Amino acid sequence: MTIPSPLQKSLEQYELPCSHQHEDVQREGAASGKYQAQLLSEFLPWGESGCTVLATTGVVELEYAAIQKSKAIFDASCRGTIAITGADRLECINRLSTQQLLEMKTGESCLTFLISRKGGIIADAIIHLLHNKILVDVDITVVESVCDHINSYIVMEDVEVENKTDSIHWLWCFCSALDQSFEEKNSFTLPFELLGLNGKAICTSSGQVVEIWNKFVQQGAMPVGWYVINMARVEQGAPIFMIDFDSNNLPHETNLTQSRVSFTKGCYLGQEIVARMESLGQPKQRIMQLRMDSDDLPIAGTQLWKDKTGAGTPIGVVTSSAISPLRGGVPAAIAMIGKNYAKSNTKTFMFVGSEIVSADISELQTNEESP
After folding, report:
1. Contact indicator for 108, 201 with CB cutoff of 8 Å
2. Going by DSSP bridges, is the β-strand pair 187-190/134-139 parallel, antiparallel, or unpaired?
3. 136 exposed, middle or buried (CB, 10 Å; 0-12, 13-18, 19+)?
4. How many CB atoms lie within 10 A of CB 93?
5. What whole-number distance in Å separates Cα of residue 240 and Cα of residue 195?
6. Exposed, middle or buried by CB within 10 Å (0-12, 13-18, 19+), for 127?
7. pTM for the complete prediction?
C-alpha cells in the first residue's frame, strides 16, 4: 500500500516561476520576457509499496543551484519513523546498532547500521535523540521489518516501540550556509555522509507539515525533487540503502563503515561478523565511485568489465548514475565492484548502447570529505 504525503496537493499545485519571451518583444543584447507561473511538478514511486516522492518541480538546473548556492527544501516522504520510549530505550537500540549511541546528547543525530545476528544489514538508520524518546529514521519500505526486529530483542526491558510514520513527517532543508530560517523545535543536523550534503532534518507532525513547508517557501527556500538530490549525492559518492545496497549486503561491502560503525564499542548484535571482517578479511565486493572518461551515461544495472573487450566475467555493476555539474557535465556513477578490482586508480569498462566506454574506479568522495 502506497503511503501518500500530506504535502502531495501542495507540491502538485506549486507554481514554478518560468521566464518566457513574447514574439513581439525584441531587445538586442539583453534578456527579455516576463515571468509566468507554471505547474511543472513530476512525481515518482519509491519502492513497490513505499510512497510517492517529488521528482522535480520542473527545472532541475534551478533546483541544483538552490541546493548548492541558496536554500532548498525536500519533502522526505521516503522516510519512515519509529519512536522508542521507556527507561531502557537508549540501551536497547544501542545493543542493536553498529554505532556507539550511549554518548549521544539530546538533539543529536547519528548514522548507524541495524544488522542481524549474521551481520546482514536490516536498515541504514539515522538515530535522533530527544529528551523523552528516540526516533529511528529509516527508509519507508523497511519500517515494519525494523519494528519487528527491535521487538524481537526486547525481553524484560522497559521499552515500547511504535511505528509513527503516519503521524511524523520529515523535511530535508539545504542551505549553502545554514541559517536560523531552518530552525524548528525538532530540528536536527542531517548527517553529511547520508547524501554528501549539509542540511537540516525537520521533524514535524503530518498535520503541521504544510504550514511549515509554506513558511520555508515564503522565506525563499526552493522546493526540490529527488532527481536533483540523486544528482548531488551520486557526484559526491554517497550510496543509499535500497538503491546501491540492501539487506543482502554486509556493512563492509557498503564501504561506509567509517561513518556507520564504531570499532571500539562493546558488544552489539552481529558484532562478531563485523569485527572478523575488519581484522581478518576483505569483503567479496565493495561500493566504489566511478569517474567517467567521456560524456556517456551508464544506467543502473550496467555491467563492468576488466578490459575493453567486454568479455569474460563481469567485475561489477553500476548501481546509480547521474550527470555531474561539478565535473562540467561529465557523468558520475556508483558501483558495486568485486574485491580484486575495488581499488582506486583502476580502469573499468562498460557498454553504453553499442559503444564501450571507460572510467576510473575511486574511493567514495564522502569518505574523503566527511567533516
Report:
1. no
2. unpaired
3. buried
4. 26
5. 8
6. buried
7. 0.91
pLDDT (tens place) for every residue of the chain, 371 residues total: 567 799 999 999 887 765 444 444 443 434 434 444 556 899 999 988 668 999 999 999 999 999 998 999 999 999 999 999 999 999 999 999 999 999 999 999 999 999 999 999 999 999 999 999 999 999 999 999 999 999 999 999 999 999 999 999 999 999 865 455 566 678 999 999 999 999 999 999 999 999 999 999 998 899 999 999 999 999 999 999 999 999 999 999 999 999 999 999 989 999 999 999 999 878 999 999 999 999 999 999 999 999 999 999 999 999 999 999 988 889 999 999 999 999 999 999 999 999 999 999 999 987 665 55
Query: Residue 65: what residue type?
Result: A
d(CA 195, CA 283): 23
Residue type, 59: V
Separation of alpha carbons 20 and 17, rounded Å? 10
User: What is the spatial distance between Cα 44 and Cα 52, in angstroms, rounded to a whole number?
Assistant: 6
Q: How distant, in Å, are the alpha carbons of 84, 136, 165 from that of 147?
A: 10, 10, 11
Residue holding cell 574523503? 368
Query: DSSP letters along 207-272, please?
Result: TTHHHHHHHHHHTTPEE--HHHHHHHHHHTT---BTTTB-TTS-GGGGT-HHHH--SS----TTHH
Among left, alpha and beta (phi > 0; psi -120 to 50; other), residue 329 is: left
Domains defined along the chain, listed by start: 8-21+35-75+167-235 (3.30.1360.120), 284-369 (2.40.30.110)
Between helix 226-235 and helix 60-69 the angle, nearest 10°, is 60
Phi, psi of 52 (to 5 degrees): -115, 130
Give, for 194, the enclosing helix (H) or strand (E). Answer: helix 192-195
Nine-digit cell at 99? 554505532
